[in-house]
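Quick one, probably user error.
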């Protein structure tokens, strides 16, 4: 997973009209974009995985810590951060402040479940 703070990325640009590429996106098919609100402390046991491609999350409001099951660890995020979830890697979020998210995710190959903890 990669996470970026867009304000910091923009502040670090040195040349006008020269983009800073953040991430290459891998996908096996179409993508869908949308928005979602998720209340704090409601997703601790919820996991998901996107086998059809990478997922992009733009945190518009709130705070959370995302965990990936591939050994990369935990990633705290807050409003203004953008996350790139890699294809095929299960992840969950412990939401500490209500979230509002803009997402781009594959339309196929999505799996979700709740753990037994």
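Nope, works fine. Designed sequence:
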């Amino acid at each position: 997973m990669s996470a970026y703070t867009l304000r910091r990325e923009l502040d670090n640009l040195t040349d006008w009209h020269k983009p800073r590429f953040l991430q290459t996106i891998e996908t096996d098919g179409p993508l869908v974009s949308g928005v979602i609100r998720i209340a704090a402390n409601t997703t601790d046991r919820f996991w998901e995985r996107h086998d059809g491609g990478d997922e992009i999350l733009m945190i518009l409001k709130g705070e959370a810590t995302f965990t990936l099951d591939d050994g990369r660890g935990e990633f705290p995020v807050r409003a203004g951060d953008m996350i790139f979830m890699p294809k095929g890697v299960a992840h969950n979020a412990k939401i500490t402040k209500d979230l509002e998210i803009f997402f781009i995710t594959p339309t196929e190959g999505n799996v979700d479940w709740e753990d037994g903890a």
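Strands lie at 2-5, 31-38, 46-50, 55-68, 73-78, 81-85, 91-106, 110-114.
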